[in-house]
Amino acid sequence: MEAPLKSIKELSPEENLLPGTPLCAGCGGLLALRHCLKSLGKKTVIVNAASCFTLLSVYPFTPFKNSWLYTAMACAPAGAQGVRDALDILIRKGRLAPEEDLKVVVLTGDGAAYDMGLSSTSGAIHRNLDFYYICYDNEAYGNTGFQWSGATPYASKTGTTPSGKINKTGSALQKKDLFEIWRSHKPPYLATISLAHPVDLANKFKKAEKFKGPKLFITLSPCPPGWGVDPSLSIRLAKLAVNTGIWPLKEAVCGDVIHTVVPRKFKPAEEYLKEQRRFSHLFKPERQEEAIKKIQEMVDNYWKIYLPILKRESV
Amino acid sequence: MLTGNASAAWGVRLAEVDYVPSYPITPQTEIIETLAKWIYDGVMDAKFVTLDSEHSMITAAGAASAAGARVFTATSSQGLMYGFEMLYTVTGWRVPLVMVNVSRGLSSPITLEPDHNDILAARDSGFLQVHCETCQEVLDSILIAYRLAESEQVLLPAIVNMDGFYLSFTREPVEVPDLEDVRSFLPVYEPGHAFFKASQPMAQGVAALGGPVYSYFKYQMHLASMRALEVYKEISLEFGKIFGRKHDTVEGYMLDDAEYVLVMTNSFSTSGKAAVKRAREKGIKAGLLRLRLLRPFPEPDIRDAMRGRKAIAVIDQNICIGKGGILHSELASCLYNEEQKPLLLSFIGGLGGKNISPGEFDFIFGSMIKAVDTGEFTTLKLLYTEAEWEQIEKLKKIAGKG
After folding, report:
1. What is the CATH number of the domain that holds B311?
2. Domain that residue B301 falls in
3. pLDDT tens per residue, range A8-28
4. Which of A68, A70, A123 shows the shortest C-beta gap to B51?
């Protein structure tokens, strides 16, 4: 294997996602996707599930140098199965030249990945389908205007988990652990990525390339309209998510978990929360101390498993 | 001697399909089991995969077809319902896959035996539909369906329908065509329109925003389906020349001078034909029109077949709750602008595989004759015998609702 990249200067200049899309300014997922496609290259077919990114290819335009197939919300991994199998069969039967082969990539939001598409995703991983899976996770159903999904974290305000007079906290449930759901299927490669860490992202794709079978990626995707932040702050939030320990950057090679970016000193979760309108009810009109404490505990409890000593900056 | 399911499997084998995404459901499962065995034994050069649901199965089938493979899949009843979203999706992709539906009544109440509410629910999806009476027809129709679906003038997926149990598990003599003859009729699938390859990036299934763009593509599908009527006739003519069997869009039985005509589909038509024969023996000028191609709906052929008849009784093996028989409505709209319209009677029969007895057919012919003679008729009747009524009364007592 080639040596891992060390600096952003070494990132590929190749662009397969071109500018001029109808997505929101500052979309974190789009920036992450741009980096993913730098790594994946041009010979790729993207199989998409219903999500914000479905609006990337609207007749007669597409911003990709890659091929594209929109399926429906629940079944992009099944679409990937069909395309992968067809390419394999046609190449084997000599009806398609081997150099015409494509990498097959599923592209979904968190609604499809965490909720409706779990069955088809589980099936595809279990069958050891040779494909990539990119979930851009903005922690809610974004394309319908930001409603609760299985990826919505505790205390997040969404269109369907408002901060009300009786229930003030927002979402009462914790985010599903999709990484662990996927890991229980024992795929050869699985990683979380961040648009604020493009070198880590590129190195993970380089590593994944070696493996035949499912290669799965989840990226946290700051969503300016949904999270209630200025579009200019997407990268700052992505960084804060990593530096507070809320979005751990890790990979699992055949099930073994390694954290690839560990902050020397963790920032308090509060620093990440208070920047976003979706958590503003935790601070105003009155501070919901219990909820803020609970979120910090969740983060600490996660890291306690992996780190002997947890160093945190003071608030 | 082959069952309907085995005939379907033979059709798929002879069509030399590349890919069989599958999911088991009664009464279809024998088809995919047979194909799995052939593929695992290397008799068929194809890939077999079991998906996690019919929704995924139809997606994988459509996606593989969009990538250029010849694809077959099969389902039934609840499975068709579970994959329903993808029926509309893959027809929009304009992919020529072929699917067999083995008809079975829909839940609830959950049941096993056939009626056509499953397949007729899919009638607006864009899938072409061929409905079969015999096992031979199942095999032949699969070959015809691939030719039709893959025609550059059509490019729509097709469903070949057969009744669960009555056909799927019934053995009949079936002539299995010679592979070389099939190859001359149905050559290797080489898509010219759309497929995935590295040297030619292509976006398929993209969003179409705005009514005018959406309307354009939807109407294109309609035009393609209507064009399939003519293409079907050319293909079935060629099929007849090679294999010596004729499969028209509709089949007339004792229709030449018939005044009282039954309209039926699928395997129950066999009972209908027997009833026509009996009625003829009694001196009634009876006949039967069996609808074979249901999508596209062969309106000109139906109008031709119905011209000059006194009365038509449509026996719908389905029930459109709150309206009546689905095919009755379709016949009515087809004949409405005719100058001399036959009387059109509507009967619901065979729901959940309920038998239609000779007595019930007699009742239908009697109703037609009475309607012509007196002008009196009710618009819809459920076929149900005294004995069946007594039986349900008994069951209701057991259930505590007597």
Report:
1. 3.40.50.920
2. 252-390
3. 999 999 999 999 999 999 999
4. A123
